[in-house]
Specification:
Elements lengths: L15 H22 L13 H8 L4 H8 L4 H6 L7 E5 L7 H9 L6 E6 L2 H10 L11 E7 L4 H8 L7 E6 L4 H13 L5 E6 L29 E9 H8 L7 E8 L18 E7 L3 H11 L5 E8 L6 H11 L5 E9 L5 E5 L3
Parallel strand pairs: 1-2, 2-3, 3-4, 4-5, 5-6, 6-7, 7-8, 8-9, 9-10
Antiparallel strand pairs: 10-11
Helix pairs in contact: 1-2, 5-6, 7-8
Protein name: F-box domain-containing protein
Length: about 350
């Protein structure tokens, strides 16, 4: 029996969450695979491979490709592809748009209980997923979701969908533009998910400042008896003031790694007592920071005593003479810091920028 793998074997680089989520399934197969390797006679035909080995191979293949290439070969593969031990990783390419309704109705919906990860980064594919798959769905094994090119108007529907996922570990959402009016509900939902560990929120474009929604800032007051968020990895890729970031961090006491794309000055007076202490925070990266040194110093002292890695790109109108203060801050208040990178981008009156690294 001959098998055509030309359009099937498409290796994928798995991220940390995907690898960790499949470790338990892999361990249960290792014993069977080791017994297979101890056979005296060589294996010369693919049909002689064990089901356990095929399940190992399928861990590196995209779910729709697996189903399209193997399901109609014979009854053995039909049984194998409906086995509860096989969890599918779905990554829909743009060239499937013409057949997307058939894909959703014939594969995704019938196998919704056995989908481990879902990656959709096309507007048309997402809209059709919302149309065909979300109503009356039960993706109770889904652990990883990536949604790109999401229309911001679709956020309420997606929030309702996220609340139905009891095992979700990793969430990435990239929207077409920023509307602050949705951020409150978005973060509230994220922090209420019972098992979420990793979260990235991105907005590709910012709405103009004349829009009243632009001035509706993020405010997330603590609610009595609120569930403690399990988020450990947080990536914020939208404009955020220091006050807004502090409001977010009050809900993430288990946070270990923080990345913030743009952190701006807060124009209300902040006190140290308002800033949470995150005892698990080990790594922080601020890509575009416009805070004063005094505010940033207060923030770091209070929130990050155990910090081991700090990367900051500071945007200023004139060079700041704070090198000695940085050295003192690191020496006295960040004793566990092992990696520190600080680049100051100085903008002149001619709108040119000069980058100056800080050597500590």
């Amino acid at each position: 029996m001959a098998y055509n793998f030309r359009n099937t074997i498409r290796k994928r680089s798995l991220n940390i969450d995907e690898r960790s989520s499949t470790v338990q399934n892999k361990r249960s197969r290792h014993k069977s695979i080791s017994r297979l390797s101890e056979r005296n006679h060589p294996i010369t035909h693919i049909e002689h491979l064990s089901n356990e080995l095929f399940l190992e191979i399928f861990d590196y293949l995209e779910g729709c490709d697996i189903h399209h290439s193997f399901f109609h070969l014979n009854s053995r593969f039909q049984q194998l592809l409906t086995c509860p031990a096989l969890l599918y990783k779905i990554q829909l390419p743009t060239n499937i748009i013409s057949n997307i309704e058939q894909c959703y109705k014939t594969f995704v919906i019938p196998h919704q209980h056995y989908i481990l990860s879902l990656r959709i980064e096309n507007l048309t594919l997402i809209n059709n997923f919302i149309k065909y798959c979300i109503p009356n769905s039960s993706f109770d094994s889904l652990q990883l979701i990536t949604l790109g090119e999401l229309l911001v108007e679709r956020i309420p529907v997606i929030l309702s969908f996220l609340k139905s996922l009891p095992k979700l570990l990793s969430l990435t959402i990239r929207c077409d533009r920023l509307w602050y009016i949705y951020l409150h509900d978005l973060y509230r939902t994220i922090f209420s998910l019972p098992r979420l560990r990793s979260c990235e929120i991105s907005f590709c474009k910012y709405k103009c400042n004349c829009d009243p929604d632009y001035y509706t800032k993020i405010s997330l007051p603590i609610v009595e008896d609120e569930r403690v968020s399990t988020v450990e990895y947080l990536v914020i890729r939208h404009a955020c003031s220091l006050g807004e970031l502090i409001s977010i961090l009050h809900h993430t006491p288990r946070l270990r790694h923080l990345t913030c794309e743009s952190l701006s000055q807060c124009y209300t007076i902040l006190f140290s007592e308002q800033i949470p202490t995150l005892i698990h925070l080990k790594s922080m990266r601020i890509n575009n920071c416009s805070l004063s040194f005094d505010d940033f110093e207060m923030f770091l002292k209070k929130t990050s005593p155990q910090l081991r890695k700090l990367i900051v790109r500071h945007n200023v109108l004139e060079a700041s003479p704070n090198d000695d203060r940085w050295k003192m801050l690191i020496k006295t208040d960040l004793p566990h810091l092992r990696t520190f990178r600080f680049n100051e981008l100085v903008y002149s009156a001619r709108s040119t920028a000069k980058e100056k690294p800080l050597l500590v």
